[in-house]
Batch of 2 targets.
Target 1
Amino acid sequence: MQLIDGKAISDRIKQEIACEVEKIKAEGGKIPHLAAILVGHDGGSETYVANKVKACEQCGFKSTLIRYETDVTENELLARVEELNRDEDIDGFIVQLPLPGHISEQKVIEAIDYRKDVDGFHPVNVGRMNIGLPCFVSATPAGILELLKRYDINTKGKHCVVLGRSNIVGKPVAALMMQKAVPGNATVTVCHSATPDIKDICRSADIIIAALGSPHFVTADMVRDGAVVIDVGTTRVPSDKTKSGFKLTGDVKFDEVASKCSYITPVPGGVGPMTIVSLMRNTLLAGKKEIYK
Ligand code: GUN
């Protein structure tokens, strides 16, 4: 069994990006600038956004954090999105999800200029991704494919089972894994809450991508010997063993599954750091106007 070290790979990619930014600087070019909007004080979102800001520093980017309290109105938020769309210094921006219930996430996502949508959530980017055109690919799926690529894991003709059908992970990673590309070219099955026989389907998988947000859902009896297991779960489960009072828990019962796998990602330190680095790469592409002029 080989552990897929997302932390080490993401550190390397951040260094690669920082080198490119140094070159841009030396040539008098524009430093990429990412803005993030954070609404409220959800613990998970606070951590993710803080990590994104830190990664910007490590890559040599400019970053701007815009905070709102939970009672911000949808119109106020939409007005700020419009401002960021027009701000020529901002190359890309994200609105951290989830948003409070009184704000339509879809309305906010669609208000973002797709050319600055470094999260890859706008329908234009989602659509382009689905038909294999250049676009901002959302960060978690892009991070997963980068791990498969850097570990030289063969996906062609393999049976890839995706657990979960979210717009952020399940749907896009399924689309990318089926695309005629490397990595990709897999036969993909997407399982969700209405799928009967999930265990049987998993047992026939060469690659399992678990993105349900259901701690320890994938158990040893669901995994065939030699399978590749990618764990996207990051549920904060209360713990009296950590200073923060919680423990990030994956969708895979790592302790019993790991020994059966050819490759497996840990939680934390697997997909999580790759998600952030993929956002950094999208920001670099936005800064260089490589996808959209
Ligand atoms: N919430 C969970 N994951 C993400 C992400 O990748 N981007 C944003 N904006 N919000 C999220």
Target 2
Amino acid sequence: MKTCNIAIDGPAGAGKSSIAREIASRLGFVYVDTGALYRAIALFSADYPTQADFLQALEDAACHLELKYFGGTQCIFLNGDNVTDKLRTPDISMKASQISALPEVRAFLLDQQKSIAKEHNVIMDGRDIGTVVLPDADLKIFLTASPEERASRRYLELEDKPDAPSYEEILEDIKRRDYNDSHRTVAPLKQAKDAILIDSTTMGFHEVCEAILELIEEKLDLE
Ligand code: DC
């Protein structure tokens, strides 16, 4: 049976993950956070002294990634270890943005992402889901917000944590990742021709969810 696939792409910090998770739970779909796959590969790469060693290890199939779901929460296992809690550091964010430009890394993850979408109804979020991974997705959303708004949301999330970065540092980091993600040669971040643009700069979480749920109702036959 053909599965139903929804793609949500957009820059870092646009709210893709929390929105995709909420919509997946409302529809009973599997939520796939593809950024976590790139982050897990970034963590894997840290064990190798050079990029050549790391790419050789990928080619030698030394990196085994598995997604498991616990009550709708995606956990990622790297060679049998649950590394989910190690993936959201600023260091891994920057490294993931760098290694995601390597064609070998993208090829390594492509089949994995496609086969999850073939087996399950999914909402998949990332940078190239509508353009490369699921070009035939049933609905494609490109979710964005101004860099300043994304930095300010991230700042509010982190401000009570010890060693929280300043707003300026977060903004700088977001702009650098936007640049890396949209200027790489392979599968850069860009809006697919048939994707619907949602600019959430002045919208709240629930407003964005409702807008996407309306599009789903309008465009997909989920009965
Ligand atoms: O969504 P995120 O911030 O967790 O993603 C981490 C990095 O992985 C991001 O800088 C770009 C890369 N990425 C990608 O190139 N393609 C995807 N489909 C998802 C993430």
